[in-house]
Amino acid sequence: MQLKKVKSALPPGWYFMQGDEACAEGAIAAGCRFYAGYPITPASEIMIRMVHRLPEVGGTFMQMEDEIGSISSVIGAAWAGAKAMTATSGPGISLMTESIGYAVITETPCLIVDVQRAGPSTGQATRPAQGDMMMVKWGAHGDNEIVAFSPWSVQEMYDLTIKAFNFAEQFRVPAFLLADEAVGHLRETLVIKEEVEVFDRVKIPGQAPFGTEEINGVPPMPAFGEGANLLVTGSTHDPWGFRKTQDSATQARLTERLVRKVRDFKSEVIQTDPHLLEDAEVGVVAYGFTARAALQAVKTLRKEGIKAGMLRLVSIWPFADEAIADLGKRCRAIYVAEMNRGQIAGEMKKYTATPVISLPKTNGEVIEPAEIVEGVRRNLP
Amino acid sequence: MNEKIFQMINAQAFPTPFCPGCGHGILMNAVLRAFAELEYDLKQTLFVSGIGCAAWIPSPHFKADTLHTLHGRAIAYATGAKLFNPKLKVIVISGDGDLSSIGGNHLIHAARRNMDLTVVCANNSIYGMTGGQVASTTPLGSLTTTTPKGNPDRPFDLCKLVEAAGATFVARHPVATPIPLTRTLKKAIAHRGFSFVEVLSPCPTQFGRRNAFRSPFAMIQALKNTCVSLERAKGLSPEELEGKVLVGEFVGPGKNN
Question: Could B76 and A64 be called an inter-chain contact, meaning their C-beta atoms sit closer than 8 Å?
Answer without folding.
Answer: yes
